[in-house]
Amino acid sequence: MKKLVRYLPLAIIPFLVACGGSSNKKTTWGKKKKTDYTKDTNGLDILTGQFSHNIDQIWGVNELLVASRKDYVKYTDKFYTRSHISFEEGQITIETLGDQNHLRNAIIHTLLMGTDASGIDLFASGDTPISSNPFLAEQVVDQFGRSVTNVAIANDFASYLIQQKVKNRRLKNGQAVTYVNIPMIANHVEVRARRYLPIVRKMSKRYGIEPSLILGIMEVESSFNPYAVSYANAIGLMQVVPRTAGRDIFARKGFGGQPDRDYLYDPAQNIDAGTMYLTILRDEYLEGITNPTSKRYAMISAYNSGAGAVLRVFDRDKWEAMERINNLQPEAVYRILTTAHPSAQARNYLLKVNKAQQKYLHVR
């Protein structure tokens, strides 16, 4: 199980509270002034001091585990029990410092949690509501190979796990932990992707963005985790940052302000926002790139690091950069962006999204 490397500046903000006061930067494209839609990559620590203090006091130092882009983490029983879903690794770990009743309760509530992330506070202790349409239903099967879809099956599966699969470990503070590991099915990522296909197809038609590109970005950004949150204060399936990309997307829609966490935790609204951001990159920042494949590579890289950073890889002058890109073969553009971009994260991001996109080329 991954533990969080601690980031504790003097001031840390509440979980996903909308950030105000963002400036609308301007950049010159020819004679026009256009809003800077660069995705915010500044890290923001989303942990509250009280939350981390509770974990330290109960679980001990170096045991802090919190939600992230591809990890769902929920504490219950006044922080004495926690559930961790690694959507990337396909592994569920549920552990408690309490008794087996706490473990059973956490197993049932985790397996039957719903898809509405807006109603779940990942930074507070409390049970996740049981849903009649569990998000994990087709991703986890019980000891008989049944999909876990209701309380009866979940309770039966919990009994089996507690009787046959319980493990124990001891924390550095001496406390004993009881836990179970629950593997997800082999193709759990594809199962989650299928859940969002209707929305993806709708947004693809609305904005003229290939479904495979939307799905590839969703996989790399969140592994189709609807509860995703990051230290850049990015939210949801496509990891949209409210105060930058979100604010500018709202402006284009004729709205004021910026989307809040509930708005971006809605899958349809999140995918709409992320796909619109791709069109901003395509039609404004990178409009001068003529080859569609080269433009796609630039769009992918810019989704992660911003269009300005992408163009500066080729030249400090924006127009000269696009001219250079236009004089290169797409393979050369890809090679340069994956080797010469100053950000290692951006280099790897293009590699990952391009690979992930290939899996979804059949989607129309």
| N-C termini distance | 37 Å
> Which ranges are low-confidence, i.e. pLDDT below 50, for 5 or more consecutive residues?
1-47
What portion of residues is helical? 40-55%
| Secondary-structure element string | EEHEEEHHEEHHHHHHHHHHH
Summarize the structure.
By secondary structure, the protein is α+β, with helices and mostly antiparallel strands.
Structure characterization notes:
The structure is a single chain. Residues 1-47 have low confidence and may be disordered. 43% of the residues lie in helices and 10% in strands. With 364 residues, the chain is an alpha+beta fold. 42% of the residues are buried. It has 14 helices and seven strands. A hairpin with a 5-residue loop joins strand 6 and strand 7. Strands 3-4-5-7-6 form a five-stranded antiparallel β-sheet, covered by helices on one side. Strands 1-2 form a two-stranded antiparallel sheet.
Helix/strand layout:
Layout: E1 26-29, E2 32-35, H1 49-59, E3 71-76, E4 81-86, E5 91-96, H2 100-111, H3 151-164, E6 167-170, E7 176-183, H4 188-195, H5 197-207, H6 211-222, H7 242-253, H8 261-265, H9 267-285, H10 292-305, H11 307-312, H12 318-326, H13 330-337, H14 344-358
Helix pairs in contact: 2-3, 5-9, 6-14, 9-10, 10-13, 10-14
Keywords, please?
14 helices, two-stranded antiparallel ribbon, elongated, 5-stranded antiparallel β-sheet, alpha+beta, 364 residues
